[in-house]
Amino acid sequence: MAPPRILVVGAGFAGVECVRRLERRLAPGEARITLVTPFSYQLYLPLLPQVASGVLTPQSVAVSLRRSRRHRTRIVPGGAIGVDPQAKVCVIRKITDEIVEEPYDYIVLAAGSVTRTFDIPGLLDNARGMKTLAEAAYVRDHVIAQLDLADASQDEAERASRLQFVVVGGGYAGTETAACLQRLTTNAVKHYPRLDPRLIKWHLIDIAPKLMPELGDKLGLAALDVLRKRNIEVSLGVSIDKAGPEEVTFTDGRVLPCRTLIWTAGVAASPLIGTLGAETVRGRLAVTPQFALPGSDGVFAAGDAAAVPDLAKGDGAICPPTAQHAMRQGKVLADNLIASLRGRPLQDYVHKDLGLVVDLGGKDAVSKPLGIELRGLPAQAVARGYHWSALRTNVAKTRVMTNWMLNAVAGDDFVRTGFQSRKPATLRDFEYTDAYLTPEQVREHTEAAVIKH
């Protein structure tokens, strides 16, 4: 009898932790594990703003999936674009654009999230995100290119528009992105003698009335104070009304000449979840505290794509889409999968949040570990210590620590690699959000697969 097939979709924190646990705890031949991911690395997403600002190299936050000594997982290079829970088939688009159907006995949906967008004219064509490694590298190149072009321009209007930068989203990603990139341009402009540093202006806007409300009023105001001391203009209760290639219109009526719009206004569950036709909570797949999808045999979900009940908070709360929860969910989910295989009871997921860290670059940070409010160097030590310890391999830890030390000693560099310099990239180009199938299209593929076999 063939061993059961376990298919894990996504190589984020939840998916990788699940696979690692399965590899360690399953007996040889007890199950066949397959991982579907377009890239052969796990991305340490919280450090992307530091990649965009050049503090870290892209390779240092991309942890190879093939370093495991117990490696026995088959990796399919592609993305899942549809799932049929009744037929137990996952439809995959490989990186060659070939579409294949992958049957499974158990499936783990850890497809993560994508940048949440709204129906704002020009947004998808003119904004850039901060959700993938390619986006971070592109944004860095783009920002440095604006300095190069402004320095070379004889047109005052063009120069002004190239030196205005807008970041939308007052959460962790947006705040860290604005803070880190503002440091980059501040340090870089010293090498552009024809540019007036006073013309460089960063704007951070958010529709919410507070900056990072999860931190509490004190730390939120402390972070706001740091940003404003750096001359970052923070506008709360404001969003984007229209985005053009050379200007941005705010909802308060302001029109800003601007060629750099970075959109970090939250995340939404992967569109893969919509292909199942199952119940969702705010777009995330509704699962039990054991990660199982009710009414579907062998379907589990965790991480940003799943609405996992937060039993530590109670009152119907669901776990926030953070790396902290995803890593721990992946491990418990793997244990529950093994329990299912062996006919044992499943365990509930319970985890009390350990706190929050926000790295604002340089010596600036705000952190709230275990409810203790910190700012400045102590907060920076906690933030970087947490991120460093969370990296999965010693190689990644060594690279990140070396990058931090080199940056502290030698400062920033301002090399533009020319990444997609001729063709402006859109949000869709990086996140492939238009690649997913409808539930009806998924069924057509699975029916064709049944006939084929």
UniProtKB/TrEMBL annotation:
Residue ranges of every copy of the FAD/NAD(P)-binding domain listed in the record: 5-330
One Pfam family cited in the UniProt record for this chain: Pyr_redox_2
Superkingdom per UniProt: Bacteria
UniProt GO molecular function: oxidoreductase activity
Organism: Streptomyces californicus
Annotated family: Belongs to the NADH dehydrogenase family.
NAD as UniProt keyword: yes
Protein name, entry field: NAD(P)/FAD-dependent oxidoreductase
Transmembrane segments: none
Keyword NAD: yes
Keywords: FAD, Flavoprotein, NAD, Oxidoreductase
